[in-house]
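REQUEST FORM: STRUCTURE PREDICTION
Request ID: SP-0412
Submitted by: Lab K.M.
Chain count: 1
Length (residues): 249
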Amino acid sequence: MPDSMKRYLYDGSADGLLSAIAWILEDEADPQALMLAKREDTFFEEGFFIATDEARAEAYFSRLKHLAPDAARIIYFFMLSEKEGMETSLLRYCALALRHGDAIKGYLTHPAVNDIIGTSRKASRELHRMEGLLRFEKLRDGAYLARMEPDHNIIQPLAWHFSRRLRAQHWFLYDLKRSTAAQWSQGKLRFGTIEQFTAPALSDDEKAVQALWQAFFKTIAIPDRKNPRLQKSNMPMKYWKYLTEKQGE
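STATUS: Completed
RESULT:
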């Protein structure tokens, strides 16, 4: 890092990151010449720490949504990606977004813009894919459970998606990778750790339905038209673990 380049630190949280960016953009004339990183609390760590300010983070993001809604959406999905080590790129992207608005999407030759948009698209694509691949299983108490292990932390937008489509049911989403859960019950959506929610075993009806679905899936398959490469492209193998029709393969 050049001696002339200032380095700022934040606490590692989403609110901390956004409030640090907001603070820097208000206080610094040239954000492109700065660095931003998560504080590691090491003895020799250098940099000015910016404390988290949730109100500042919310106000900044609201302003960005008004000035550049497409850029705000890209930043939202970037935050879901949990990609580490890209805080400086995000800072520079945000500075450009405030200056150019949604015209920033035409600046793909800028390294920071290219990095942020590319990472954001990966999280957005996985969310769209999971909306179609997620499988709900009926539990003994009548509720439904869908398990997943996504690459990105998409449980919140995924839960909001199903809250609009499965309003009459009582269901859970469970991200095993992060031990987080979402619960929809009596018209309310809640988020927390899996320990906060209880999930009984599968019902006998659900086991019977799964067996029928697996048999149906195998019956309709046409061996001569089997295309493993296309199937893996549309339904990547990393998701098969929780797809009823792919159990036992």
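NOTES: The chain has three domains: 6-127, 131-196, 206-246.
Reviewed by: T.R.
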